[in-house]
Design brief:
Number of domains: 1
Number of helices: 7
Largest sheet: 5 strands, mixed
Order of helices and strands: EEHHEEEHHHEHEH
Number of strands: 7
Strand content: 15-25%
Shape: globular
Helix content: 40-55%
């Protein structure tokens, strides 16, 4: 089963109004530690952003102030990003350079891609964003890890 790591972006962001890759915007130490572990192991990962939903680490974004976002706005943004499973499947297909078998219809194949992927959600314990993401992925294999255990376990948690 393939794995896709989804790291919650919380807390500190770089200052300014410069457009940067998302992985450089989020500067919270827990996020940076998890990112470093995944990059050292060359594992596929996405960022779970309150503003942008699921984004690629190299997606270019501008810093924003999370405190100005209401819980309702965050919920709506995450729901919009997670409701279209075809987009999520296409992201996994691109990450793993998968090729559709000739015997399967496109929608069946996308669903199969999702069912054969383990989503590993990493973030703050009791995070509303991670809980919403877990709920959106209800029919698929999901594992949650908090930042502290993920980083302190290092390579063991990647097995």
């Amino acid at each position: 089963m393939r794995k896709l790591y989804i790291i919650e972006a919380t807390g500190n962001q770089s200052k300014g109004h410069n457009v940067l890759p998302a992985q450089e915007i989020y500067t919270d130490q827990a996020f940076v530690n998890c990112k470093n572990v995944l990059e050292e192991e060359s594992l596929p990962w996405l960022i779970l952003s309150k503003m942008h939903g699921l984004i690629w680490p190299n997606s270019r974004i501008i810093p924003y102030n999370e405190e100005l976002m209401s819980d309702s706005e965050v919920s709506q943004r995450l729901a919009r990003t997670l409701q279209n499973k075809q987009i999520l499947a296409n992201t996994i297909i691109g990450l793993y350079a998968l090729t559709k078998p000739k015997s399967l219809e496109l929608d069946s194949w996308r669903l199969d891609v999702l069912k054969t992927t383990e989503f590993i959600l990493v973030g703050e314990k009791n995070s509303a964003c991670l809980s919403m993401t877990e709920a959106a992925l209800l029919n698929f294999k999901v594992t949650k890890k908090d930042y502290i255990n993920f980083y302190s376990e290092g390579e063991k948690c990647l097995l």
